[in-house]
Amino acid sequence: MAEALTAALLQRGLTVDHAASLDEAEAYMAAVDHAAILLDLGLPDGDGLAWLRRRRAGGETRPVLALTARGSVEARVRGLHDGADDYIVKPFDADELHARLLAVLRRQGGYLGVSLTCARLTFDVETRTVRVGETVLTLSTRETELLELLLRRAGNVVPKRVVEDQLFGAGSDQGSRNAVEVYVHRLRKRLDEAGTGARIETVRGVGYLLRSAA
Amino acid sequence: MAEALTAALLQRGLTVDHAASLDEAEAYMAAVDHAAILLDLGLPDGDGLAWLRRRRAGGETRPVLALTARGSVEARVRGLHDGADDYIVKPFDADELHARLLAVLRRQGGYLGVSLTCARLTFDVETRTVRVGETVLTLSTRETELLELLLRRAGNVVPKRVVEDQLFGAGSDQGSRNAVEVYVHRLRKRLDEAGTGARIETVRGVGYLLRSAA
DNA sequence: GGGCGGCTTACATGTACCTGACGATTGCTG
DNA sequence: CAGCAATCGTCAGGTACATGTAAGCCGCCC
User: What pTM was estimated for this model as a whole?
Assistant: First the structure.
């Protein structure tokens, strides 16, 4: 089921890390700042809701969608009470899950609200639209993800590792060669040609950094 | 309540500025680059969320944690939508607030790690980033290591022997010639050109010492 | 003035990064 | 379904930078 779900979400343009257990999930979550978490309550190694309660107590703020076969009202209430942002009963439609996921993300509105900015650049989190002043700048999916990532930490260095994890998922240990560098290059070119006042600087051996042109 | 909260956070190793009103807060915020903002929505001189929305529109990117007595889901959603990074309902535990604060800072990237300072220099241990005031100063790996070493003992002499061991490993019995001197030279040059108020002094026959310019 | 410790510049090597191009895949369109 | 365009990830060649060593120079102290 997880594989089918992963495929379905990938197909819809999202990046997915799949963990088969709570332990594995914690490992991923420590490494990557995921936008949301899908929590199957029927996991082998522990009670999903108890786990969620612990994470919430520990300061976890990422939105969580609980997946379960138990559809009773009481179960649903308990799930929401324990910190789930939405509660989805199996069997469910991939489209429905996708929609609910987007709804939660929209509600969360990103960490900063609706729009991120740097120089003449603005990025609308809701519509995932990039603007330079008034005119819309069209970027590919990956380019947009990269830009958003840099914008969220504008002025701060984003380690290359983090970029890799965010763009390609934490499971890309060996897979990617120099993809990050290529996308940085492409994004730089577009930002430059579009005359945004924003610039991506390289911090050798560490990562990249978005800022207004000097 | 604010006093108790201030005390609790101070006790946990954070530095806190307390403002009793939005006006006072703006004064502080103009003067200091705080790592995060705790916003009580029950302030006397205006709607906290409206204020937050205005600040976000004006380019405010610092993370904001909203504190409130209104615990309804709608209020929470509205808060997050208006640009809050987290939303905490009173009454809350000081530990929980602390944990959530750290989580937001970690997610924001940067500020969390203990930062070492000397004059206008700051070094973030977590991201290994060097700053002069606001601007990031890029150093090579070795230069960064050396600077960290000197910063950790700022004001005290660091024996040359110790520097060698730290930079090149204890197994560099005879191997390195005058590498330390070279790196001290390079670091001096960079610190000088960047206008940090920090200076590396030489203690003949012993080692080096970092301090604010005399 | 000779020896020592430290300063400074220069250089050879490796590494990290940039960048143009290519095959593969996907999505769209006629 | 064929054909086209866009996007994706990889590679190869080039470039810029970091690194450690060497060599000449300066100032200190006897």
Answer: 0.64
